[in-house]
Glyoxal reductase
Amino acid sequence: FEETKKLANGSSIPRLGLGVWQVKDGDEAVDSVKWALETGYRLIDTAAAYKNEASVGEGIRQAGIPRDEIFVTTKLWNADQGYESTLQAFDESLAKLQLDYVDLYLIHWPVEGKYKDSWRAMEEIYQSGRAKAIGVSNFHEHHIEDLLTIAKIVPMVDQIEIHPTLTQEPLRKFLAANKIAVEAWSPLGQGKILANPTLIEIGKKYNKTAAQVIIRWHLQSDIIVIPKSVHQDRIEQNFDVFDFALTQEDIKQIDQLNTNERLGPDPENFDF
Ligand code: A2P
């Protein structure tokens, strides 16, 4: 099993990382990031909107792992969309993280009338080498189709809400056909689906928890997965998924848990 995935531009992204949405700036973020890196995680996913970039950067420095062995993602917030403001927001993110570059910069949400101008700036940032890859988040198929009418560079990633109760199969197929890597946010359903009996039953066969089963389901479905936790034991548990494999039958059973229910906002009517 390959622990990294090649993006369309040839760069490699770890398939399993730490997400830090709702992780508090300060010790909580510093420690979570440090524990994750000590555990073996090499992907950290933050965003300007999470307001913890400074602590994420601090955690990275405290872990003492060479910069080029770590993959750092951050995202452009909605209020900063537009050409000039994107360039400025990116500089601010780098300054907070205290990094010279990020590995992936994403447009956080498809703000109508703005995301094309933002994308022009993203392309320039990419060409300057200060973002090694660029992509989008929460884009539906029609947003991407629209972006592609002006894009010189096809987004390398689309990060969307995916978990066993929102499997997003049509969008995932579209993304795969366009060589856009799929990344899942709220991959554990924000922890709300961990008591699901199907997931627990499957886990029993392998002596694994529901969380580990879900993470494995993402990995085996070619989805980059960034579970969030602020507890060291869970951060470790969530990374302990490379010593077992789900069967096709297990995966089919988990696919069938889909109810198309979102936990987060629908990009179609998000109040930007
Ligand atoms: P905590 O941060 O207190 O550990 P998602 O990644 O889908 O957003 O899910 C994150 C939620 O799931 C958080 O509330 C987190 O709580 C919880 N969580 C993460 N990993 C585990 C785990 N292995 N077991 C139980 N809960 C977990």
About this structure: The pocket of adenosine-2'-5'-diphosphate is lined by residues 19, 186-191, 194, 209, 211, 227-231, 234, 237-238 (CB under 6 Å). Residues 35 and 232 are 6 Å apart (CA to CA). Residues 4-191+223-240 form a domain with the TIM Barrel fold (CATH 3.20.20.100). The longest strand covers residues 71-76.
